[in-house]
Prior knowledge:
Elements: H1 8-21, H2 25-38, H3 41-68, H4 75-79, E1 83-87, E2 100-104, E3 109-116, H5 122-138, H6 140-147, E4 153-161, H7 165-178, E5 185-193, E6 196-202, H8 219-224, E7 227-229, H9 245-263, E8 269-271, H10 272-279, H11 290-307, E9 311-314, E10 327-330, H12 337-377
Helix pairs in contact: 1-12, 2-12, 3-12, 9-10, 9-12, 10-11
Amino acid sequence: MPDRDLTDDELRNFFEYVVSREPSYEDTKDEIAAELRDSGETDDARTRIDNGIRQARSHDNLLESTISVFLPNGQVNAQTDWRFLGAEPLSELGVPNADLIIGNPERNFAVIVECKSGLSRPGKALNQLYDAADALREHQPHLEERIGMPIDQFECALSISSTDDIRLVREIEQHERDGRAQEKVFVWRLHYLENGEQIDLFTRIETREPGKSTHDNELAQILSGGIDITNDEHLSPSFFPSSHLYRIMEEVFSTILTQRKIEDGPMRHFAGKEVLDILTSQRHLPHYDADEIGTRIYEELISRLLDFKLIVSISPSDTQLTGDGEFYRYKGRGRSMSTILNDLQDGYKSAAVEQEIELEAMRRTIEQYEDEQSRLGDY
């Protein structure tokens, strides 16, 4: 039975191997895919995709709110030397990483923060933060060079919805009682109020002495009192290195189409360089290696949109756009900004559903193949 942990590419390669051994399994896969569509799997897949996009958006929103208080117009930045240094530090190395890092260059002090919009498994969240702290120590010289600040000391925090605070604190207390606490973790709570959002520091952790649940710096006072969050659309990030590709697509093409409307340019065409410029801009992607991370995202995004048949490559002679590089046309029928975006959104989800159906059909076909090979091996 194929491992459920196989990546999509590994599953496809496994299936291609099976078909190379026995071509008839291509037909088997098509029959299974048709059965899945008839059985309502399409609706189930659509629900999973919608939920995945929604959960990713909730995480991004929490991360954006947490970052906002450390931006140049934020209260923390205005009253202290603490500032935002980057989202998902060390993600460029493919190692465990927190969602953001803030720092005080005057003290060479940093805090790494993991954001959790949902907390069904608080122990897993703590372990992820422990792993991120270990990775920071292992790659500290690299990180210091990238953020432009030595790190003489750092702390760890989890930013969560205030509705999850007790669940997380109880898990922290249990880790500290059992000796499993690899780091001293501070708890930041986001409160969703009628007139806005506020973030504060939870200070009642029973396994710690009075005063030990707060940061060892001026963050303690300002966070303990609570900070109102004011998201400035001109300063807030558009997306993050691990944002869902659907959201990145929305943000990128909203920006391109808005600009095209202002310039009265060809609405149905875009240049690859336009996409790349947005993805590698720290204004949109708040990572210190935005060039490298953004280029990776660009390659994945364009490949996905081509695979999903949402765009098509065109010749430079077929567009009014100028410059070097690749040019593309949206395949949907929309000609206005809103209809083009709707075509991309609907088309992306529909293609993602079909991709899920195909991958599940491949998985079940491989299972049939392995069962058959096992029976043959018994003789």
